[in-house]
Design a protein that fits this description.
Strand order of the largest sheet: 3-4-2-1-7-8-9-10
Number of helices: 14
Radius of gyration: 21 Å
Strand content: 15-25%
Shape: globular
Number of strands: 16
CATH class of the largest domain: Alpha Beta
Distance between the termini: 16 Å
Order of helices and strands: EHEEEEEHEHEHHEHEHEHEHEHEHEEHHH
Helix content: 25-40%
Structural class: alpha/beta
CATH architecture of the largest domain: 3-Layer(aba) Sandwich
Number of domains: 2
């Protein structure tokens, strides 16, 4: 199968969309499929992945969030697609560059699959662009309804897309690398670093983008109300400066970006994972935390209950309620037997999610689209 991926985000970006796409490409390559990657041009971005050339499209920074690159329509995409001669085009999170992929797939009469990973219109409200909400929703609906099949990463998102009158919606299950992310990756040295030299105290960890929409500042209440608790924040983003000022007088370490083995060690060296965001379509970091044997304490949302089994792999708290958040943290950290039980439950839940199974489901959707 020859698949052309047109994606709004790719390496060197390190978000959940890129992580999913990388693992999917690895699995597809192992099955003998061939692929083309069309992605925005980043200053230091790689020219290839897995031995395959990446067709880079000139891009400009998104002003409220310069780390995001937006690639306007470019005729070179059409030339690259015609040269590759795909059996199918998969547009990933179509909005700007993805629209070009939608256009050329239609023009070339090639089956089109689209996948929805980020609620762009909701995020826009946190960056002063809420006035574009209605227009953005209509644009997303138009692009996705050009596709024969629209994939999403949670049942909650599936319901949302159907409510937005998007057709052909299918659930694309999430995977995780349960070998890389494992409780055995515990690092004493890294725990010392993440706890700022206090490894004997309880250590909470947050991993993810530091965006204004992530509600990370609420975690400060835990540090005020639960003595002997420290927080490590792993990641970067436009809200980092503001958050560093907000947490200045608290036992918090801003560790910056981590990848690969260092990230796996960071997860495994903490006691629990905290996830205060309510804007996720899934939240890959939660699943990586589960694989690392971390109980997950997450804001109750439409997608988080699909990842966290209440009382088995973690606890959900009521969004916006400091009291509910603090109680959930105390339930996990206040009793070692409870934390140990949740840790085992977390690992077991993650082991049921594999990239092999995720990609097998995806290839089934590809075949369905090609039959048309």
């Amino acid at each position: 199968m020859r698949i052309a991926f047109v994606t709004e985000s790719f390496l060197p970006a390190t978000d959940g969309v890129v992580t999913r796409l990388r693992h999917t490409l690895d699995e597809l390559s192992g099955l003998g499929d061939e692929f083309l990657i069309v992605a925005p041009k980043y200053g230091e971005g790689p020219a290839s992945y897995g031995g395959t050339h990446i067709h880079r499209v000139p891009a400009v920074p998104f002003p409220p969030y310069p780390q995001i690159k937006m690639a306007p329509p470019n005729p070179s995409v059409g030339r690259a697609l015609r040269h590759f001669r795909p059996d199918l085009v998969h547009v990933v999170n179509p909005f700007v560059l993805g629209a070009t992929g939608v256009f050329y797939a239609r023009r070339m009469k090639v089956p089109l699959v689209a996948s929805y990973h980020t609620n762009v219109t909701v995020y826009a409200q946190f960056y002063g662009l809420g006035f574009l909400d209605g227009l953005g929703r209509r644009w997303v609906r138009t692009l996705h309804n050009r596709a024969r099949i629209n994939l999403c990463t949670s049942e909650a998102t599936q319901d949302y897309l159907r409510g937005q009158r998007i057709r052909g919606v299918r659930f694309w299950p999430q995977g995780v690398d349960a070998t890389r992310f494992h409780p055995d990756k515990f690092s004493k040295d890294l725990r010392v670093r993440l706890s700022n030299g206090r490894p004997g105290e309880r250590l909470l960890i947050y991993v993810g983008r530091l965006g204004h929409e992530k509600n990370i500042a609420q975690l400060k209440k835990v540090l005020q109300e639960v003595p002997g608790t420290r927080l490590a924040i792993v990641g970067d983003g436009p809200a980092r400066g503001k958050l560093e000022r907000e947490f200045q007088e608290t036992p918090t370490v801003f560790a910056g970006m981590m990848q690969g083995e260092e990230l796996a060690e960071a997860y495994a060296s903490a006691d629990a994972f905290v996830f205060p965001s309510t804007t996720e379509t899934l939240g890959l970091a939660m699943i990586e935390a589960l694989a690392s044997g971390l109980p997950v304490i997450a804001a109750r949302g439409e997608a988080t209950h699909e990842v966290v089994s209440e009382g088995e792999s973690g606890f959900l708290y009521e969004p916006g309620s400091d009291e509910s958040l603090v109680l959930a943290v105390r339930r996990v950290l206040g009793d070692e037997d409870t934390r140990s039980r949740l840790s085992h439950g977390a690992r077991a839940a993650a082991e049921a999610r594999t990239w092999k199974a995720s990609t097998a489901a995806l290839r089934g959707y590809y075949r369905e689209a090609m039959v048309g």
